[in-house]
Fold each of these.
Amino acid sequence: MTDIPSQTESALAAIAAADSLDALEAERLETLGKKGWVSLALKTLGGMTPEERSAAAPAIQSARARVAEALDMKKAALEAAALAEQLARETIDLTLPAPAAPRGSVHPVSQVMDELAEIFAELGFAVATGPEIEDDWHNFTALNMDETHPARAMHDTFYFGHNQRNAAGGQMLLRTHTSPVQIRAMIDQGAPIRIIAPGRVYRSDSDATHTPMFHQVEGLVIDKGIHLGHLKWTLETFFKAFFEREDIVLRLRPSYFPFTEPSVEVDVGYSNEGGRRVVGGHGDAPGHAWMEIGGSGMVNARVLEFAGLDPKEWQGFAFGLGIDRIAMLKYGMNDLRAFFDGDPRWLAHYGFSPFDQPTLSAGVGARA
Amino acid sequence: MKFSLTWLKDYLETTATVSEICDALNAIGLEVEGVEDPAERLAGFRIAHVLTAARHPDADKLQVLTVDTGDGNPLQVVCGAPNARAGMKGVLGLPGAVVPANGMVLKKSAIRGVESNGMMCSTRELELGDDHDGIIELPDDAPVGTAFADYHGADPVIEVAVTPNRPDCMGVYGIARDLAAKGLGTLKPIAMPAFTPAGACPVEIRTDDPQGCPAFYGRVITGVTNGPSPDWLQARLKSAGQRPISLLVDLTNYLMLGFGRPAHVYDMAKLQGAVVARRAKDGEQVLALNEKTYTLDAEMVVIADDAGVHDIAGIMGGEHSGVSETTTDVLLEIAYFDPARIGATGRKLGLSSDARTRFERGVDPAFLDEGLDLLTGLIVEFAGGQPSEVVRAGSPPAQAKVVAFDPGLTLRLGGVDVPEGEQQRILESLGFVVGADWHVTCPLRRHDIEGPADLVEEVVRIHGLDKVSSVALPRVEGVARPTATPQQKLERGLRRAAAASGLNEAVTWSFLPEWAAQHFASDQALWVLSNPISEDLKAMRPSLLPGLLMAAKRNADRGAASSRLFEIGRRYFRSPDGLSDEKPTLGLVLAGEKTPRGWQSGKAQGFDAYDAKALALQLLETAGAPTQNLMVMGEAGAQFHPGQSATLRLGPKVVLARFGMVHPATLKAFDADGPIAAVELFLDAIPAKKGAAFARPGFTPPALQAVTRDFAWAIPKGIPSADLVNAVRHADKESIVSVRVFDEFRGQGIPDGLKSLAVEVRLQPRDRSFTDEELNLISERIMLSVADRITGGMLRG
């Protein structure tokens, strides 16, 4: 029988020296394995007398406990080292670029149309639409511009050929304004009615600030007892909400549109800041001026009649605003032509995140 | 409409400043487009006294002057004018001044080696006349050193935009009347000239077209002397933007600009027989004063004599009978023409003129005699001669409109409370007659007044629109109701889904070059503009793809690596009734690199038809289309690669979308580099969701786990994988919940003409687990079903 303490010491030394899990396992078998000397020593206890056993047992038990503990500790240490080595091997260069997901965008015109819809919905206006290829009755005649009306000539109208008339013989054309939607909405829905009608309109005009296609929004309120004061409030309220500022000042000027009477041109006060027009303040204040922003008025009684409403019973107002124009004022674009070019650089610069859905609670505008 | 302050003050007694006048004009609806103050243009020009004049040492035609500008330091100035001499007084432009005629900034300089400290100016250089023979010579008492603008009398010029409903304001007098009503001063009565007519008018005057020309008044003046107009008249006309021509012509223009009343003067020597207003004969020609020949038709009114047409009535006079320097006897014409006919004639001839602008909007029918007398008086005063009596053919409309007005309407429609007395004052100051019980008689010149609303406008614009207070629109109680239609919600959702998928929303022209529209038209007739602004914007688009392809090409030309563009808009078709059939559509193109070359992905990759398919399905899903039930079929259109494109259909006929690779021939036609993938979603074909409630059906996940089984078949290459999937699904519609192709392989180990498809089938047990026997049975049914439905297929595992 060998000397247990010295065997234990040499086993502990071997465990400490094990440099792999395999070497450690070999040492475990050598000691605690079925045929390991510790296990065999333990077995000898069975054949001893109680006196012998109580003399021999403590040394054997202690040897077993010390070896087992050393094995566990060494195993944990070796595993930790292996993991550390594996992790070190798996290290990657995270300064390398990750795959980029393309960023899409919503066009400013669409964004502003959504803003309009949101603000006007709060005021009880629904969004109406109509055809862009119109007949001259809806675009002119029903709006109190008969064939000989001088104002017709001022509309720079795009016409389709004579062989492209409608069944009723109407001259087909590209609508020059969103106003024909007034007529269609009144005929379809009657009164009372509150609508806005945003959409594409066309004039044969092209220069630095005009494009042959642009966007307008029409507003129409027909009810009982509606007057110019309601029109003024509606436009003021809209512009305050749209530009998210309280210092909007509007100036109404008498004007002329065949489809409204009285007719009113709407100016908004602005100042020049850093070469940009900033809406707000009184146009007559120092450093400020007025900018024409839309046409409006009380719907002409003849127009109501054309649309099948009794002007003795119903009255109301209509207005028209340039969507591209107010988009430029709010978001700082300066070139209208670029709106229609489809340049992804421009679209990414001036476009909006799909998650900038205009809401009243968050403010309808999206800040840069 | 432009006029000078002096001219306005001829008719309006006022102490108002220019800026007060402009504010008032804006407030009453005569929008001020600009104010030109000549004092600003003449800044830096002073009255100077020439002290000495000596020959320039190196130039025969130049002189070296010393001039006194009043500060005791005479300046040396080089001058080329022959009339420059010692002792004279003239106008000196100092360094820094801008010469009005040519915009040149004066500076101290050396002319042929001699220092010059300014420029002595001619009339033309200061835009005060045409004289350029020498420098301006001022009288001896002109105060040396005074700013020339102050001495000359600076007369600001105001330009207003007159709306087409107000021809009565297309003369200075009408503007004065409006300003007086606004309280800016007192309107002076028109000063009628004194002259003594003698003898009947020797020329016979007739109107043979009482409808087109209800009234034609005339008078002859004999023994006139034509020539250049006096300076004051030239200055007036220039202030109004008119070029002076000759005294007789200028005086008619002066009447027109002052009172909005066009007239015409004929040289009697050029006339033969009676002068008649009549319809033109078809094909009749006239050489007009603009030196162009116009061919007329029977819808047009002319003034003619025995020899032919002398005047396109109300629009432009003829060259032949116009007055000249040698004219001695003249016939004056003042007529009233039917406004609609003047407008139609002008449009047909494409001929604009100041006269047409006024006649087609409507001149004052009550101003023929006064107008004729005013013109006669002016001619007699400045050109001499003896006028005849007036001769009148026909008569202008004289029936004044009477409007039954309720002054309460001003508050109800205009939203402002104006006392009745003030309303009456306003209307009367504009020439309306307010009768008892508020029957308002309108002046004949106000063609624009149709009813009570027009009178409200008159009252409110003069009273002041700024006095209208804002009044909140009545609103429904509680939170505003949703207003968007299903179509609007669909478009909003699609727009943001497409943008969230990495696409940029574009807005492209609705019109295309005709070839591009034709290329994308199938058999439908296009809408083609008859007056396009250019050939590139001519035919209404039958598809959103051509506009997007052109944008993608522009982007590629600018060096963009890729274009991911979408647009939501309309396609335009003609419906059988001749009306417009506008179809809401979403189009998208994917051009250039899908992924750039990368350290992970290797070479740059382009887009393929599956990218298009993925987007099409994803967007249709957003749109609420039943994407599970869609059929992938062919016939995407000739603009697509025939082997790499498809349509997505709900049933065989309802096409919801087309997608795929753009045909190489289309790329070539659009001069675009491919490959380009494209999708078009036909939004009007997507069925609306009906009766959907907020509450979803209950959530009942299956209690038992699904089992998956893999199969592989080799089937003929031409058979779409969807056929195999359908065949598998058909085997047991109850248990099979999904069938997914996870591998497609052609080549080694697969017989020629076949492809291998590996399929994962998911089986869902219901109330108890499948037994091995049941699973085997299902597998057998699947194999049978495929064998049955796919000809030439074989099971591989």
Amino acid sequence: MNYTKQIQDIAAKLFTEGKIDVFVGYRMNGFDDNQVPVLITDPQDVSKLVFTDKSVFNLVNYLKTDHTRRKRVGLVVKGCDSRSLNLMLTESQVKRENLYVVGICCEGIVDDSGHKMQNCVECVVPDAVVSDELLGTPSGQKPYMVNVDIAALAAKPLTERTAYFEEVFENCIRCNACRHSCPLCYCAKCCIDQETATLYNGANTTSAAFHALMTWSLHLAGRCVDCRNCEKACPSHLPLHLLHKQNESVIYENFQEHLAGVIPEDRGAFYKYSLKDPDDFIM
Amino acid sequence: MARVGVFVCFCGANIADYVDVPQVVEEVKRIKEVKYAVEYKYMCSDPGQGMIRDAIVQYKLTSIVVAACSPRMHEKTFRKALSDAGMNPYLLEVANIREHSSWVHQKDKKAATEKAMDLCRMAVAKSIANEQLHEISVPVTKRALVIGGGIAGIQAALDIADARIPVVLVEKSSSIGGKMAQLDETFPTLDCAQCILTPKMVDVASHPYIELIPYAEVLELQGFVGNYKVKIKKKASYVNFKTCTGCGACWQKCPVKVPNEYNMGIDKRKAIYTPFPQAVPNKPVIDAEHCTMLQKGKCGICAKVCLPGAIDYQMQDEIIEREIGAVVVATGYDMWDPTPYEEYGVGRFKDIITSLEFERMVSANGPTNGVPQRPSDGKVPKNVVFIKCVGSRDEAKGIEYCSKICCMYTTKHTILLHHKVHDSHAYVFYMDIRAAGKGYEEFVKKAQVDTGTTYLRGRVSKIYKKGDKLMVRGEDAQIGQVVEVEADLVVLATAVSAPKDNPELARLLGISYDKYGYLSEAHPKLRPVETAKAGIFLAGCTQAPKDIPETVSQASACAAKVCGLFAGDTMKKDPMVSTINNEYCSGCQNCVLVCPYGAIVTEEVPMGHGSKELRTVAKINEGVCQGCGSCVAICRSQAINLAGFTDPQIINEIVSI
């Protein structure tokens, strides 16, 4: 998967036609074969743009910054990224007319060891669902599968699972990198930081950190698109996908096979009501 | 520093028998903010309220906790006591230690006492964070919506309109009149139903304050008391009512014949029809399901014979929107389907009919010109068996309740039978004769003597065919023997059941209904016509089975309630409404989506202090907000706070236990 040439051409054309102020893409980081996001405002710099199976980050996150807000933006999105863009559009955070979206029919991203990333193996929607221009050949929606780690955890008894999570999340340093790296965490002031949110305050105890992480994951339940920006940003290497994937599988099972951001204007399982919604938990 | 006063009520024995009230008082006294705590037998009584008023002044209290019954019962009473003492009424907090503790934990006094203490601690903690709030006043739309055009809806509409309040009357079928229009004579005075009903129907049609919308359904109700918006779907009638003169040429020529619902399917009507000759409005509609033109595109006879050209096959459903202030629901009832009574041969034997079918037969404008006939051979029946409580009071096959009107209408039927077929004999199988009502018992007694009807106390176990007769086998409990009666015709007094659309209607109106589908009143004794939702009232059988006098009384009561509601130009409203903190609002508009009252809109505000750039945030219309808290729960940014239930108040409550 290499669309470097096409993306450079598209970006150059958009700048020449005066259609965009800034282009958000990927460039090489300069010291190994990994890539970092880049915001290009000078048409001279389009040659820096690359796109390969190492283009891992979700660039939709950069639509939250001052550099892109109220500007006309060119943007590269993979399947998962496009779903989060869809939600940003639905939740009135960006205006579609300000965007020129280069959609990718993604074949999966590889990690440092050269293997396809787990979320790409389990990917349901590899083709971009929002785009002005689609690169590659669409391969269609794949069958949903439950995450391997969730399946393995579910097999363990409750006490063991609790112990596991308590141990893992003890390492959270409350740096909030996960929040900043998530395109859907765009609130003006996160509820966790508000003065009245006394439940998350105090010392960095496991319970406060865990509480904050649970709140965060529930605010993303039915919205998380499994791009794993949060996990890549976490300096403590917490397995944050466990929280999101657990929510995702419960929602998929109970809310008419809901998948976040695939359908435009679909806000997610918690934000709509259907007569088919399960009510067996009500006495 | 907060100074809280706690007042714990015995509620006579209701609380004191199951909760150790003095111990609760001792416990709350240990909370440092509590400056005064006391118990009393009836806190809601005048001396009880006096204690609160005096303590507020004497102990300089800043908030009050009353531990008593549900706030639904007496919150208003105690708020008033606070205002009388010069305190903001919203500094009151009610701890419900009756419904939430003493009544539900009657077997365990220790646990009930502990729970009462917890509830008090929570209320004290919450009250510390209570803020002064002030009532909001909102304008009222003085127009009422009446759903259902039976006798209940007609009476309610007329009474409201007579008070010069505009009424929108929505009726599902093409004519108003409802079930009463199908009746022949009415108990206990045997007035002709048509004679007393049709003048009222005409009054409705001609009343300057009534807008009659027939052949229509309510689709959506938004807003709140005094300020509802209703969407009404006017079904396509394919006849332009404005140009139609009601001459009848169309239905005389229409070649399609369909079972006539008005006559319980005993005869046929046409595909273009008025339900009965006295219909209001007296304009036909086309039954699209059976019309050849609308189904197959061939025919068009009615359009050819219609001189004013009122037939319009292209007509579409129309959505009508109205702003209203109050709703009267009068959707009536359905007749219960007796199919589960297999041992009676329902469905197998043609000569078993329901009471409403019998009513149509003996009716002067009925399909048999007022003479009862056996459906099997058209002969006039001589021996007629009436079976009461078919479906009613039968937990196994039917419904548990008594349908209330069957005893009386069966008595009426024996009289009507006697009038129409002089040499007939009626048998009535009954469980009890319930004739509570003015002149009812006398009516039953007189009918028994005049008609010579044989009353057999007992249930029928089997009906079988013998030649062209039906053999009705049942028990006569008074002689303790099995009896068999040879019948030409069997009439089943089928139960009254709730309209099958009631649950759906209740959902769209936002009111509750019981397990049978009857709409629920706010209080069975003291608020029998109100629903739990302010501004929505109930009239007639949609609430429970009842006879015509009761239905009419209830409809008039609804009218009085509506008039009372519309007496002033504005309405006072609780200040428990949501507010948006613009700084925190991210403009995702989830709250707009979940608000059941349409109280949230968006507005543009500056990006930051002095900034010219704008961003979108949510805005609450406090006149429309009902304080349900849905927006607070859905808001990820926690930008919304509900006055009276703010985060500090709720967190205080949680932390206190």
